[in-house]
Amino acid sequence: MRPARLRSCISGPAFLMTGGCTLRGAPAFPIMGAYFPGWMACALIGVATAVGLRVLFLLTGLDALLNFRLFTYVALGVIAALTVWTLVFGP
């Protein structure tokens, strides 16, 4: 195969794979002069939500009914983080 033809075969799919890239950049916001990435804020909110729900479940007695506690709290934290991400940075 010729180099020019090989280059066109590679650049076509590579061009299509970059369709999600934009010139806006990553979602970030300044906190005390430094840009703080949005994914980290959403992760912290997810962790805080999971810890808060664990305390709430312990106080109400629901924690004793859970079979897979770790997976439950991780899933609740991920749901909270992705919900915040969608609401704040989504389309």
Automatic annotation (TrEMBL):
Q: Which InterPro entries match?
A: YtcA
**How does the entry describe its membrane topology?**
Multi-pass membrane protein
Q: Which residues span the membrane?
A: 35-58, 70-90
The highest taxon in the source lineage is Bacteria
Broad class of where this protein is predominantly found: membrane
Keywords of this entry: Cell membrane, Lipoprotein, Membrane, Palmitate, Signal, Transmembrane, Transmembrane helix
Give the UniProt subcellular location, in the record's own words.
Membrane
Q: Which Pfam families match?
A: Ytca
Its cellular-component GO annotations read: membrane
Q: Give the UniProt family note.
A: Belongs to the YtcA family.
UniProt name for this protein: Uncharacterized protein YtcA
Organism this protein belongs to: Gluconobacter albidus
